[in-house]
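I'll show one example:
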Amino acid sequence: MTMVDVVQQSSPRWSRRRRIITAIVAIDAFIVLFAAVAATQFYDSVPEPAELRPQQAVVDLREVPMPVLNTFVAAVDPDFYEEPFRPWSGSLITRRYAATAADVDDVSSWRVGIMASKLEDRYTRTELLGFYLNNADFGRGTVGLATAAQTRFGKPVAQLSVAEAAVLAVPLAPDADADPRRAWESVLDTMVERGWLSQAERATQTYPA
């Protein structure tokens, strides 16, 4: 048997294999395309939540010192400022606000994640932090940072010390220690780790009575 005979006998088998491989590739491509279209349609179908208009007093974050604001970021989501935009997710702070605005309980749901990503595509991180803090539940029926500051310390947010702000931030922490004092110290330690508070400044902080 010559080499030509071998090629001629084997070519139908290879032809069938090529057709099978081509069909599989085509099916895979169709599935990927269908999934992409379905995902895009689902993403587009989720509305951006309407901006909440709190009935309680609100805080203008431009009037609040950054160290005070950073206590809340340290407690809730230390990566908030650095997290890249993700079209199907969003930071915890943004997801919490989105869930509140949409009246949804499950902060981790895909729907809330999409809402959060749409908000992050539209607003700055500072604006989103303001939306969240002005509508956050600080416990014991206290809603909004301005109300929490007045209720706990009898002063406006702009006059809070870092130590006082850390006390208010503790109830917002997703995994706070059951001991409020230890949870407070954890917030301050996170601020030091992130460079938002120096070791010397940390050493001067005392737990508010």
